[in-house]
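ok, trying the design again with the full structure, not the truncated one.
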């Protein structure tokens, strides 16, 4: 089946979709992105992802190239052309194309906008949630503004590759003080033996996950005791449950860390309850 992408105002065949070699996204990772899950044709957590996109652009002083209604029209058309009703939409906006120079171009340039989408097998994600996954820990080698969703993802790429090579599904990054920041593309959570739900505070050390915010909401309504603070890998290994969250994996239980079993090695009941509550409302 023919795939389509959207690049700078035009839908084009996916194999022909291209940007200029002097695009600042390509040259400097001077670009932001967003990812929405699509379930039954609907964008999940649309508001949160659009708001985070605006914030990321504002933090980098990249002007918004399209209004939200315009972006939503493009996304609808992209999903229709690609016949995707369950999957994800990827959006990237770079500062634009300019003669290579680190500082912002002196003359205003037009941001580059790229959208793609693809199908996802959510049934496979459900199966993964049934068995749980393993994670490894790696040093967090990223910059000090992980709250901005930039395409500057090399440390995340290396972390995920290290996880795969170790037979794990995700890497939990650990800061210089020995605390877990987050996964390479997911937020990290534990439930302590006392039953308290812990996830790192939304500071500049992590991406403020939209799913993270929704799960905190669900947890509150389920009456769970919650604390937003950093935890160590040792605390995670001593926990009753561990799990991760993201737009495309929702809530996925973590059953081993660095090859050591968390609790009894089976997915925990709170992770399951939170996944079900989240999906029922999504
Ligand atoms: N942390 C990082 C580093 C990520 O890339 C992602 C996925 N975008 C997340 C956390 C989860 O965020 P969200 O729930 O908004 O997908």
């Amino acid at each position: 089946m023919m795939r389509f992408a959207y690049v700078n105002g035009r839908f084009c065949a996916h194999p022909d979709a291209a940007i200029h070699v002097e695009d600042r996204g390509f040259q400097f990772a001077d670009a932001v992105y967003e990812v929405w899950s699509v379930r039954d044709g609907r964008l999940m957590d649309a508001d949160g992802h659009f708001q985070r996109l605006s914030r990321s652009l504002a933090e980098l002083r990249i002007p918004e190239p399209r209004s939200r209604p315009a972006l939503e029209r493009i996304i609808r058309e992209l999903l229709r052309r690609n016949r995707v009703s369950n999957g994800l939409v990827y959006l990237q906006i770079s500062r634009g194309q300019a003669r290579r120079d680190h500082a912002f171009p002196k003359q205003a340039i037009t941001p580059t906008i790229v959208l793609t989408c693809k199908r996802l097998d959510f049934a496979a994600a459900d199966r993964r949630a049934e068995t749980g996954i393993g994670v490894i820990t790696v040093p967090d080698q990223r910059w000090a503004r992980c709250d901005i969703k930039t395409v500057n993802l090399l440390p995340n790429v290396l972390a995920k590759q290290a996880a795969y090579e170790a037979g794990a599904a995700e890497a939990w990054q650990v800061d210089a003080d020995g605390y877990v920041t987050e996964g390479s593309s997911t937020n990290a959570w534990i439930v302590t033996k006392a039953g308290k739900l812990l996830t790192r505070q939304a500071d500049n050390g992590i991406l403020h996950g939209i799913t993270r915010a929704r799960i905190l909401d669900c947890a509150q309504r389920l009456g769970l005791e919650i604390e937003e603070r950093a935890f160590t890998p040792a605390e995670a290994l001593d926990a009753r449950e561990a799990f991760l969250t993201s737009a495309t994996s929702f809530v996925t239980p973590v059953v081993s860390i660095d090859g050591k079993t968390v609790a009894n090695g089976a997915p925990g009941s709170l992770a399951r309850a939170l996944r079900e509550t989240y999906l029922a409302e999504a």
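Keeping the full-length input from now on. The first helix runs from residue 24 to 28.
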